[in-house]
Write a structure and sequence with these properties.
The protein is about 30% helix and about 15% strand. The chain is of the alpha/beta class. The chain has one domain. The protein has a 4-stranded parallel beta sheet with strand order 4-2-5-6, with helices on both faces. A 3-stranded mixed beta sheet has the order 3-1-7, with no helix packed on it. The longest helix is centred in the N-terminal third of the chain and has 13 residues. It binds iron/sulfur cluster (2 copies).
């Protein structure tokens, strides 16, 4: 199981400088979503006239269903400067992949819980690290896309775009660079060094 926690109001406000389209995923039963807190935050954004539309749905990690739902709301998405996704890390990555070059932000952190993990087929992986980095990396998870789970850039060992640890996989940080370039956010690579808080990576046992 896993739990998603809304990021702090300060972090969310720093991401949303313009108009936003919001996606809430209230999907699978293995995930606990911060529905009440999210609703309160969305009410504030609505009152400020910053929201072009809200989609509340399930299983946004299913790309085919997601694409149909997003295309029905394409005008609202185009009107927004960014898309805010309130879901686990897999959902955010699925939306970011489909909507590139639109900036897509993660509104939640994903935290691991003990117990059964669902078997939904997914294109992306979230390590449930407890401190989501997707807002720095263009929606590609550095924990799972990089063999060393680096959060501050490439190790320097890639060859021809392939990872030095596993030559069968693309270097995650080269993918991140290309995504940031496509979304006009390469300046994210100049942001202060990220210090990973490993305390958030522990399973919640209480
Ligand atoms: S950075 Fe990766 S592992 Fe951590 S919560 Fe985000 S998607 Fe999951
Ligand atoms: S080559 Fe790329 S994916 Fe592989 S460990 Fe280094 S930075 Fe990570």
């Amino acid at each position: 199981m896993l739990i998603t926690e809304l990021k702090s109001k300060e972090v969310l406000e720093s991401l949303l400088t313009g108009k936003v389209f919001i996606i809430n995923c209230h999907g699978c039963k293995e995930v606990s979503f911060p529905e009440k807190e999210a609703e309160e935050f969305e009410k504030e954004l609505l009152a400020a006239g910053k929201v072009t539309g809200i989609l509340t749905t399930d299983y946004i990690c299913n790309p085919e269903n997601l694409q149909v739902r997003l295309e029905r709301r394409r005008a609202m998405i185009d009107e927004a400067d960014a898309v805010l996704v309130l879901s686990c890390g897999v959902g955010v990555q699925t939306v970011a992949e489909y909507l590139t070059p639109k900036p897509v932000f993660a509104g939640c952190d994903t935290v691991r819980l003990p117990g059964f993990q669902g078997v939904t087929p997914q294109e992306f992986d979230c390590g449930q690290c407890g401190e989501c980095y997707l807002n720095y990396t263009g929606g590609i998870c550095p924990i799972t896309a990089c063999s060393k789970s680096l959060v501050n850039g490439q190790c320097g060992g890639s060859k021809n775009g392939k990872c030095e640890v596993d030559p069968n996989m693309e270097c995650g940080w080269e993918r991140i660079y290309r995504r940031l370039e496509a979304t006009g956010r390469l300046d994210m690579l100049k942001c202060p060094t990220q210090v990973r808080n490993f305390a958030t990576d522990a399973e919640v046992t209480k």
